Amino acid sequence: MATTFGEVAEQVRATIARYTHALDDGRTDDVVATYCADGAFELPGTGTFEGHDALRAAYGEWVPRRPQ
Q: How far apart are CA 33 and CA 28, in angstroms?
């Protein structure tokens, strides 16, 4: 568990990297794994997706058709 500001900041950076790489690769389950079980994502004009099931369904629709 992180105890210093630097450790926490590094874990945040690592999570963002995991999220963006998984998103670019179309690995929906890995994208969803970066969210807490009750996490939510709001995309203006599209909606708000809450919880792993809703997030998985939404991100599953946005899988890239070619390498990012």
A: 9
Question: Residues 33-63: pLDDT tens digits?
Answer: 999 999 999 999 999 999 999 999 999 999 9
pLDDT band at 1 (very low <50, low <70, confident <90, very high): confident
Alpha-carbon distance of 41 to 2, in angstroms, equals 25
Q: Which two three-digit tokens encode residue 33? A: 């794994």
Amino acid at 23: L
pTM above 0.70, yes or no: yes
Where do we find the tokens 């890239």? 64
Q: Partners of 40 in the beta sheet?
A: 50
